[in-house]
Design goal:
69% helix, six-stranded antiparallel β-sheet, flat, 1002 residues, six-stranded mixed β-sheet
Length: 1002
Amino acid sequence: MRPVELKIQAFGPYAEREEIDFTQLVGRSMFVVSGRTGAGKTTIFDAMTFALYGRASGALRNASDFRSQYAQPEMRTEVDFSFTIRGDRYRIVRQPQQPHPKNKTPIPHEAVLYEWENGWKPLATKVNEVQEQIESILQLSYEQFSQILLLPQNQFRQLLDSNSNEKQQILQSIFKTEAFRAFQEKWAERYSVYRKQVEWSVERTRLKLLELEDDSIEEVSTKSIDEIERWQNEREERLIETCDAASSTKQIHAKTLNQVRNEFEEAKTLINLFVEQEQTKQALEAFLSGESLRNERRELLQNLEAAASIRPVFERLLEMEQQVHRLTMEEQNSSTKLEKLKATQSTLIEQQSAIEADKQEVITHQERLRVIDEMMPRIKERTSYMTLRDRLAQRAHGLADFSKEARLQELQEQEQQLVEGLKTEPTERAVDVERHVDRLMQLVSLETKVEGLSKQLAECERTGKDIQRQHATQQDVVSTYKHQERLMLARQLSESLVDGEPCPVCGSRHHETPQHEETSVNVAEQNEALTRLEELSTRLIEARADYRSLHQQLETVQREFDEVSKGVRLDKSLTEEVKKWSVHAETLQRDERMRQEHERTLRQLTVEIRQLEQERRNQFEERQRVLSELEMTQQKLHALGQAEETTLEALQSERIDRQNRLTGLMKKVETYEHEFETGKKAMWKEEERLSVTREQLNEANKQYGVQQALWFKQLDATHLTRERYEELANQIDQRTIIREELQREEEEGVRLRHYKQMIEEKLGSVERPDLQWIETKVKEAAELYEQASEHLITAQDTLSRHRQIVSEWNALLEDTALEEKKLETIKLIADTGKGINPQKMTFETYVQTAFFDQILYAANIHLDQMTSGQFRLERKVETAKGNAKSGLELLVFDAYTGQSRRVQNLSGGEGFKASLSLALGLAEVVQHLSGGVSLETMLIDEGFGTLDAESLDQAIELLMSLQATGRLVGVISHVQELKDRVDARIEVKKSRSGSSIQLIVE
């Protein structure tokens, strides 16, 4: 990532919009940010970090505090940052949450990410989306950015002091070692899945054995494999014997069941014959009882045959009657219609003279409309010019006076007053008074510190004396215990001496028996007293160290107070002086704010006056244009000449009336002519239709008389009357059905007589059997057979299931053994990858150590240069204690002592050099390996102030040598030597109205 341009607005101490164009650093790879304390140097790095991640560069600043206190309410706080990475160019515009200038609802946090593709195109428009895109583009989180590309103020040792887990996340993001972690996690997941699979296989094998459903299976399943197999063989033999016995029983009951079933079928056949004999007898009796009805149907069938023979003559007669009736009705209707048409035509002939008059009126209206159409264009043109003349005259009258003339004069007077008031310059600046107030406030703070440290020193002295008294008392207690212990040892020694044997103390062989006091030592109390004495000794040492530390701090603060108070003249107490000068500073600030307000008001008045003057000029020009157009319109009216007597409205009204009258008359004439022609044609047509209808009616009457004579002749031949024929007419088509029913009934009577005789011959003298008793015997035999069958099936199923389960159990047993062996191999690989090994190192960490060793090799080249060969960074190879991960901890080897120690023990200057070397080494290795992370930029906030002259010179030489690599290094520093040796500077200047930025390239 390499910055291109940074724009800051109302951000931190910057009230206005400030810009830094990094493209001006062409051919330079280092720049220094300088300025007074509090001017806003760190804010430049904060702006870059805020634009990228929405957070400050250091942990002590909050993004919600970035709103500038110097900015105008209407100016929004915003950062616009563009940068390049891997040949692509991006831009972020971000604004923090900030107060709204007009209402209480704050302006929310907003961010937009753009990408350059022949112009800026939005890539993400939501805060969370921008965060995800930036981390994807830079391949770094905020924490990793602060540890690798940015060394924040007072936090430059983060990467150096980070633990193994934190370094692992950084190296994972830079060198993309997720694949190795995925590999180890895949094997761990594979082991977990396969372990469950093996556990399920073992359980499935046991459950398979329990499927045998034997009373003793629970006890057998806990025994060894050999005992289980022996039990299975014994159980199979018992099941085979049970199957053989059940098969023999089934055969006996099957034979008995067949005999009883044959007997039952014979009895059922006889019963069916007796039932059929009874049914045939009843059917024959019913047939004989219906003979009279059959005779009636035979007579009906003869009458229907006669009626069928004369039906065509009758149907033809009916057709002739209907035709005569229809023609008679048509002849009557046609006569009536013809009379009506003749009357209508007579009425139309009477109206013919009136229609002729209407035709003459149509011609008159048409001629007048032609004359009106010729007059209307001239009158319309003159009317439009007259309307335009009136409108222009009214417009010119409205533009004669400027409505805002009074407002313009008022603004000009206010402008003159403000100009007179701003001519006087202030005699004293608020910023000078503010500096004096800051110095007084510093003295107040130092005075408060002196008082506080004095109180702490006195309290520490009192506490130390109290602890010293307790320590002396406890020493007396411990001395008492030690004296008692010596007395007890002496008594024990004297009691153990034997006359004639030498004393182990003095060597004498003659021993006197001294008198001893009865003493006893409580060991627990003695140990407690010793522990208490050690605790008091530790507290006494700590109290003395605290006293010395507080005394040294008090002397330092007192010296600082004396240094700051030099040149400060105090007429009153510090508090009163601060109050007096603060009031004076506020008065000057209020005066300056009022003067700035007057300046802004003057600028606004000038702008408004110019706008009003321009409006007045525009109005005058508009009036001149309207007057010119009014004169041209009047000339055109003179050219058209004198006006007609009639008006345009009257002509239009007359034209509409005549057009409406003309349309009505023409429609009336057309309607009359159409009705006259239509009526004449209809009358001719109806006369012709009436003539034809009368001829058809005469012919139909003749044919009807002939058909009626034929009908009467047919009735005499069949001995029927017309009434009897009409009764039979609906049943003529049923004669076939009646004939077939009679034939079928007669055939059924013959069949019944024959079948009754045949059954009587079969039965002879046989008696009716007891079917219920035989059926009971069959049911009992069938139940015995079913029971035997079920018993055999159950025995066979049990044997078959036993063999199947045993076979499946053996197969599962073999599969489980193979899976358990495979699980051991998978567990070994998974545990090794997860770090369950003597080194406590995961597979991903093992790969990361290879990259880390390369980084340390590159970093030590720079560290050797800056420390003249004293220090060298090393990777700790010892295994960490407990469950902590290891492999990426750092040690520093000191060539002066020949020993390695923790990097946390380095001093501030030594830690800065080590951190700078580590960051440079990381950047070089990443670029060498062409990783996904671009480390083209390094930003350092302070840190050089902790270096001595020689170390500073070495660090500067190192940073200057980076120009050959093309890496851009930005440094915030107060060190003058560094600012003198770098020809590119960003100077931050502080003023009473906010800070400003100036990029200087020499």
